[in-house]
Amino acid sequence: MASFFEEPEPGDMIEIFHIGYKDWAIYVGDGYVIHLAPSNRFPRIGSSKMFMFLSGEAVVTKEPLKMAAWGCLRRVNNCLDHEFRPQSVNQIISSAEKMVGDTKTYKVIFDNSERFATTLRYGWPRCKMSGSDPIPGDMIEIHRPVYKHWVIYVGDGHVVHVSYAGSGYFGGNTFIMVKVKCERLQDVAGNDGYSVNNYLDNKYRPRPTDKIVNLARKEIDKTWKYNVFTSNCEHFATKMRYSRSQSKQSEDAMRLMGVTTMALPLALVIL
Q: pLDDT digit string (tens) for 113-152?
């Protein structure tokens, strides 16, 4: 996920487009970043910072983002979130703060500031996303026999999700009611497999973890009419995580309904 328009949040990686090279920094809040800057041997004017990269000498520096960018274009770019599990914000910032003032010597030209930032965000060795080890705020995809059920992990082995709550009849139409529940992940999954799948992280910016969890918990016990195309379990999970409703399986179902009536039963089971 990369955007030139989003405001950074603590723990974000910032990509800065200097003339002739790119710099990477970790945003630590209150307008400040921690990044590799030239040692005192080189002036901080114009593109002279390029010599830092050629010389193999840099200092870990904390300074305002505006000063680090020097008017150059910049963007939030947590480029490996889809592949590696970010460390907690506290871990990222604490590790970065401890390094301030350290001198670094380069062995590879140009890519070391990115390596510096990615190591802080994702740790070393980097931790691959694990389908069986969710953290609060994750979307979990449960693999039912003929559909996917989506839930939000809120910690301590529990998830918040949409569950069947009965049916009704009004105006000649039968409708399904759903209720938001908080239950143990193992109880919801049963014998079905599941995996962490924050599949829209490279497209939309997730809310902060605490906001995802708090919003999901506030929805508990709420009920509404279920609609496979506009209000299913995946819509609920993506709305909690990204503040917008989206459902790949409902889009697939709509495409199927254009060619086969087999999509109709699917509308009754995606819960």
A: 888 999 999 998 776 666 668 989 999 999 998 889 999 9
HEC states along the chain? CEECCCCCCCCCEEEEEECCEEEEEEEEECCEEEEEEECCCCCCCHHHHHHHHHHCEEEEEEEEHHHHHCCCEEEEECCCCCCECCCCHHHHHHHHHHHCCCEEECCCCCCHHHHHHHHHHHCCCCCECCCCCCCCCCEEEEECCCCEEEEEEEECCEEEEEEEEEEEEECCEEEEEEEEEEEEHHHHHCCCCEEECCCCCCCCCCCCHHHHHHHHHHCCCCEEEEECCCECHHHHHHHHHHCCCCCHHHHHHHHHHCCCCCHHHHHHHCC
Residues in the chain: 271
Give CB contacts under 8 A, 24+ apart, made by 19-24.
19/46, 19/47, 19/72, 20/47, 20/50, 21/50, 21/53, 21/110, 22/110, 22/113, 22/114, 23/49, 23/68, 23/113, 24/113, 24/114, 24/116, 24/117, 24/118
At 262, is the pLDDT very low, low, confident or very high (cuts 50, 70, 90)?
Answer: very low
More confident position, 10 or 19:
10
Hey, which residues are catalytic here?
149, 161, 233
According to DSSP, the residues that pair with 70 across neighbouring strands are none
